[in-house]
Amino acid sequence: MGSPKASAATLPLILDIDDFKGDFSFDALFGNLVNELLPSFQEDDADGADGGGQDALPNGTMRGLQGTATPMFPAVEDLLALFKDSCKELVDLRQQIDGRLQNLKKEVEVQDAKHRKTLAELEKGVDGLHQSFQRLDSRISSVGQTAAKIGDHLQSADSQRKTASQTIELIKYLMEFNSSPGDLMELSPLFSDDSRVAEAASIAQKLRSFAEEDVGTHGINMPSAVGAANASRGLEVAVGNLQDYCNELENRLLSRFDAASQRRELSTMAECAKILSQFNRGTSAMQHYVASRPMFIDVEVMNTDINLVLGDQGLQAGPSNIARGISTLYKEITDTVRKEAATIMAVFPSPNDVMSILVQRVLEQRVSTILDRLLEKPSLVNLPPVNQGGLLLYLRIFAVAYEKTEDLAKELQSVGCGDLDAEGLTESLFLPHKDEYPEYEQASLQQLYQSKTEELRAEAQQQSESTGTISRSKAAISPSAGQQISVTIVTEFVRWNEEAISRCTLFSSQPAALAGNVRSVFACLLGQVSQYLTEGLERARESLNEAAALRDRFVIGASVSRRVAAAAASAAEAAAAAGESSFRSFMIAVQRCASSVAILQQYFSNTISRLLPPDAHAASLEEMGTAVSSVEGAAQKGLQQCIETVMAEVERLLSAEQKTTDYRTPDDGNAPDHRPTNACIRVVAYLSRVLESAFSALEGLNKQSFLTDLGNRLHKGLINHWQKFTFSASGGLRLKRDITEYGEFVRSFNAPSIDENFELLGIVANVFIVAPESLASLFEGTPSIRKDALRFIQLRDDFKIAKISSMLNSFKMDS
């Protein structure tokens, strides 16, 4: 193996600029420098290891066999030399690169100066070129404007040339029409050529317009009639001939239009319609087409319409059947108009105008014809019989026809009818009926009410005849059995009115008219309900009056035979039964009145009040209050009669059942009887039985007022009754028991004042129980009973014996 120096001298150390180009890596460069030295070092190291005679020393050198030390990294000297040479070469390369960069910088500065100079020269050239383009654009614009002016002049000249040419042609044609009156044989072929009808029509209209304008102008400006005639004589001939020609041409086109229409040649129809539009805007063609539709000229169509709606029964078919017929007819009309609309859109240049004429003709002819048959206005003097429908049938058919026709108008409006107000035209068809509608509605309600009262009267008569076999004596003691008030009938009145209100809403488009009609119709209901309930209460009162008459008839004197007295008592019992029955009947009537008034008020709240403005609402509410007040007045009269009936029976029972020994029992040593007297038991039983209907029938203030009045009358009647008797001490106890029984019963009245009266009456009864010397002490706690107590004291059986009179006189003086 050679020495390290020898090996280092053989290593090439060459650095080139290319080594630093591209993706430069220092590690790669370093590896390339040292890779040639390291393999020799590795080989030496390997040889030393194979010898095995060297040991590594702590300082990194190797010890040989003889004990000499050798370097551990022998190529280090070579690497140091290599690195030094590389550094020198790197410095040289850097200097070379710096020189080159300086040269390149100088070259770049020179080239940049040249480039800047070139750009400045180019900018000057571009500016000049831009100015040249602006001058060119300005000249082009000027030339374009000049060309446009020349074009305008040429176009104007061409237009004037054409106008002059057309004017010459028109003058020539005008001279042809000016030849002689009525002579159309010498006209140009244009006016007789069927293939040039459109052109002939246009020229004829222009000539006609010119001639008529000229005649009118000369007629105004000429100072004399003679001058005017001389100036326009020839044109008047032309005007006449042109009018004749236009009429003849229009008729010819209409004939061709009809022929094409029968063959359904829409293109020919459209061509004729377009030409005819030059004659009076095509009005004649539109009207001719509409008038030629089968539904307007075929009598069979009219008959079919009437038969479809009315059938074989006519108006008696009923509103529901008529409604179905009208719906079917109007659907057929709508389908027909829709089909015609398709044809009109394809044929006429102004389809909206044609549709306007068509729909107007449908409403004014076809619909109006069926309405005239349906709405035969009845007389308000001689009303139609109710069994044939009465006025109600007319009103129901009126409502059905109006509603269905309104729907038809909306359908036709949706199909298309141009500027025509189909709904407004439909409204005008019903104006004669709507103007008098309120009178007919009120008359119908009155007719229904009269019919119902006659029906009820007939039923009552029939019931009376069916009971005609009753014995005369039994009938004599029976109160008149008029028909009771029925809530069902009042509900029927309300149903009539509700139906009438629905028609008011349908027919009254304006709020003011609706409010007026609703008020008048509701006033009819108020009158009907008030009259019906008042008459029903009056009938019930008649029963009370008849029962009272029966009581008076059987009143007898004291000195009669026993047989007569027994018969009279039996008759009085029957009269009492009649009075009780009449009482119950009247209470039922009052209860049904209350229910009927509640129905009326509920109807007003739910239906009427929603349709009225505030002022009309207040007025109707006042009218309803007046009507209800009249019913309440009749009820109050009857309730007073009921009190009279009850008190009459109470007095009869007391007179018949109360014995003199009830309150003056003999002193036989037996224990006193603490039970109520028989008269008290009978009276309380009667009151409990008869007032049961009053408790269920009356409510609120009516019930409170009635029971309070009855309680006061009962209190007063009992006091007057007891004034007829003399009381012992034990009798006073029994009287106190009767008063307690009466007091217990009147507690059901829920009237505190009545309870207080009977409580005080119980205290007053103590005047029969206490000793004479203790009477004065009774008044100390309750001075309010003094008056009644003084009256009762005189009824004591010991009043004279115990000298109570003198005691009372001294008591009065002390007080």
TrEMBL record:
InterPro entries assigned: Sec10-like (IPR009976), Sec10_HB (IPR048627), Sec10_N (IPR048625)
GO CC terms in record: exocyst
Coiled-coil features, chain-numbered ranges: 87-121
Any one Gene Ontology BP term: Golgi to plasma membrane transport
Entry keyword set: Coiled coil, Exocytosis, Transport
Domain Exocyst complex component Sec10-like alpha-helical bundle: start-end pairs: 199-807
Domain of life: Eukaryota
Residues of the Exocyst complex component Sec10 N-terminal domain: 79-193
Alphabetized Pfam families for the sequence: Sec10_HB (PF07393), Sec10_N (PF20667)
Region annotation (Disordered) ranges: 44-65
Protein family membership: Belongs to the SEC10 family.
Protein name, UniProt field: Exocyst complex component Sec10
Species this protein is from: Ensete ventricosum (Abyssinian banana)
Organism lineage string: Eukaryota, Viridiplantae, Streptophyta, Embryophyta, Tracheophyta
